[in-house]
Amino acid sequence: MELTEAIASQYSRIALSHVGQEYPNKLDHVMVEDADVRTPRGLHPVFYGSFDWHSCVHSWWTLLTLRRLFPTIPEAQEIAALADATFTEDKLAAELAYLKRPASRGFERPYGWGWLLYLHLEAERHTDRPWGERLSALASTFGARLRDYLPLLIYPITVGTHANTSFALLLAREWTHRHDRDLLIEIDKWTLNAFENKSNYSGWEPGGDEFLSPVLTAALLISRAMSAGQFAAWFDRLVLENGWIKRECRPVTVSDRSDGKIAHLDGLNLSRAWCLLGLAKALGEAAPPLLRDRAHEHMVAAMPHVAGDYMGEHWLASFALLALLEAR
Question: What are the domain boundaries of the chain?
Answer without folding.
Answer: 1-152, 201-328
